[in-house]
Amino acid sequence: MPTTDRPAPRIRPSLAAVAAACVTVLLGGGCAGQTATPTSAKAEAEAAAPGTSLEEIASAIGCTAEVSVEADELRQGGCETGQGAYRMATFAAQKGLRAWLDEARAYGGVYLVGDRWVVTTRSADALNALRERLGGAVETGTAHEGPSSGHTSPSGHTGPSAPAAPSGSTPASGDAAPSAPAGSSEHSGHSTPPEGS
Fold this sequence. Notes:
Elements: H1 15-28, H2 41-48, H3 54-61, E1 66-70, E2 74-81, E3 84-91, H4 94-105, E4 110-114, E5 117-121, H5 124-134, E6 137-140
Antiparallel strand pairs: 1-2, 2-3, 3-5, 4-5, 4-6
């Protein structure tokens, strides 16, 4: 049997064939049933942006938003109308909205909560009217109780002696937060002096 010293021929694909295969793979990938994910920073920011902007919320209120916080995770601002002052915030994620709302509720108040946005003002009626334009749900925070009788502030002045509102109630004046600074308490390292001392 004769032997050949020649190596086996290599099959080299042409450049056109390789390019055609790449294009087919790229175009065919869109048919896989999965949605494409944005790749640019701008596209990612737009995908994370809430459906309702501060400007849209302010327009529904009838004012112009003054933005006070411009961050990746939230935008916050406010405006004022004849009905009072409004505070509003939009969030990049629902988790951020919930964390913000959990902290804010400790101070009482009423909140109109939508998909990654929140609006607050002193009047529940104003928020209910706004809800008709924007959607969302009205949520109420817990009342923030001021210092109790006998507690002293860091300056030594006695705090207000009015009885604290029951938990979950709204102050009669409609205030969402106390107007006076909170006095010290046992929790801040100071103890309340016994009555008559």
